[in-house]
Every structure is written in structure tokens, then in C-alpha cells.
């Protein structure tokens, strides 16, 4: 049965002709409203937030949006939508059956079956360590290399927001199971239970691998490292699938490509305007706080958000909160009393 068609335009409340900036602003507005930080324990908001993210993931990406628009609401699962043609109906269906996406990662990334049946399950496809990564839905590479084999492995990579900003490489260490070589995976030898694997037929091995952090990854992004899976005696090797887990940061909330942080300012600075320091993920930046800034005011600091796939960066939004000094000295107290008593 085909997953139900999703109208991403109506999810974001925009028209089919909406521009990229209209998509972005609609997403931002809704993401702020339904953000989990503001709706703790609210299941409806949570699923709404997921839906908004999914819609934005598709509509903010011109290539995905084009594909999606081509499908239309008469879409059927397995339909050939690749503009370059050449694939028969049902091809993709086959790939997913019993495949990786139905195992551990299928439910975890929060994207709907509809999304997965169009765009697959992974956002990132790192075509070998040296080549960086490419999106698997590019017309050429699409679907070509996605057959799963028992040589494939999965692992989860824990990253901080700072890791996304700095890019570079991370060492990933994980355990995986191998068929026991003593009993050839049988669990039994001629003398009874295999002493090496104690009858399980499997032994645990450790793998360490350097992973290049691609631009544009987010929580639950998937990467594929070709040829980094298990190796067969004959030389054939499987792929390693890595799921990204982005650690929460107490100071920065992630909203799409943008970050949001709270800034405390003194009442006189908020009233008169001032130069203030705002923390970013890589050091402080000085910005101008305009006069007459109220609590809740958002200041945008360009390009201090997260790196995007195309190399650009999202923005950082600083939300102003007006605070008072933790202790007032005598003069401050005196002046504040004067201020209070002015009619
Ligand atoms: Zn054994």
C-alpha cells in the first residue's frame, strides 16, 4: 500500500508558487511556534514540528521540490519520477524491502513513509572518504548503489554543534558482530558448544574509522561510507551507514539552519542602545543593540548559524531579555530610585 500523499505546501500554509524566502519565513514562524522546547510533553506539537521540518526539508531544497512537484497528488509508491527515466515501476520498492531503512533507522528519523518512499532514508551519501558526499537523489547516482547486503554495517555518531561548525574529521569507534570464525557461525563444534562464542555463533569486534563531517548534516542525518563495511574474503566489502546524533546545546537552539540564543542586557542598555557581545559557536561577536529594545526582540547575526549543504551558513538569532545586575551598588540604587520617582 502506498503511503498517504502529503501536501507540504499546506503544511507550511503557503501557495505552490511560494518563493524560497517565503518557504523559509513560513517554516521559521511555524518552527518557533511548535518547537519542542516550548511545548514540552505536547505530542500534537511534536508531530506538527516533525511535519513542518519534513515539509521544509523538501520545499527549501530546489531539487527535491522539483521532484515533489512532478509527482503530484496522484503519486503512487514505486512510481518512476526520475526525470532521466529508465527505471521500471516498483524498482524502488524492491530496494527497500528488508532493507536497512526498515530495520533500525526507519522510525527514528521522524520522517514519514511518504517522504522516505520518494527521497529514500538518508540525507547524506558520503561517496568514499576523499570525495566528500553527494546527495543520493542526484539524477545520476540515484538508486544505483543502494542494495543492502549483509556486509553493510550501521553506527551512530555523536556530534556537538561545534563539530558541525568546525567540520573536519571525527574518529568513530563502534562494536559490531562477526560470525564466529572457530565454529563458522554455527555456535557448535564437534565437541559441543563453541568455546569462543559460547554458542552464539557471533563474536564482537571493534572498528575505528575517521569520518569527515559533511556540511549540512543535522540531527538524524544519515551518511553512507562506501566500502567501509565488512570485508568478505573475496575482497568484496559492504558499506557503513552512519546516523548522526546531534547533542543538545544548553545555549543554542537549532531551528533549521539557524541558531537561536538568549541574551541578557541591562535595562539602561536596552533603553539607550549599546554595543553588546553575543556568544556564537566560535567566539563572541560585537553587535549594536538599538535604543528602545524590548524583551523578546530578536537580533539577527548573519552567517553565524549552521553550515548548509551549499556552503552557505544559516543565521544566529539573539533574543533579548532585560535583566538587572545581580547586586546593585549604592549609586545604582540611588539612580534607580530617582528614575522611579520621576513622574
Ligand atoms: Zn563459535
Structure, described:
The protein has 343 residues and is α+β, with helices and mostly antiparallel strands. It is built from 9 helices and 13 strands. Strand 10 and strand 11 (283-289) form a beta hairpin. The structure holds zinc ion. Zinc ion is lined by residues 180, 182-183, 187, 194, 196-197, 201.
Task: Note the main attributes of this structure.
three-stranded mixed sheet, 343 residues, 24% helix, HSP40/DNAj peptide-binding domain, binds zinc ion, four-stranded mixed sheet, 9 helices, single chain, alpha+beta
Short précis:
The protein is of the alpha+beta class and 343 residues long.
Which consecutive residue ranges, at least 5 long each, have pLDDT under 50? Answer: 80-109, 125-147
Helix content bin: 10-25%
Bin the strand percentage.
15-25%
Secondary structural class: alpha+beta
**CA distance, first residue to last residue:** 72 Å
CATH topology title of the domain at 253-341: HSP40/DNAj peptide-binding domain
- CA-atom Rg in angstroms: 26 Å
Secondary-structure topology with pairs:
Elements (H helix, E strand, L loop, with lengths): L7 H5 L7 H15 L8 H17 L2 H10 L19 H6 L16 H7 L33 E7 L1 H6 L2 E11 L8 E2 L2 E2 L8 E11 L9 E4 L14 E7 L6 E3 L2 E8 L1 H6 L1 E7 L2 E7 L8 E4 L14 E7 L7 H12 L2
Parallel strand pairs: 1-7, 9-13
Antiparallel strand pairs: 2-5, 3-4, 6-7, 8-9, 10-11, 12-13
Helix pairs in contact: 2-3
Zinc ion binds next to loops.
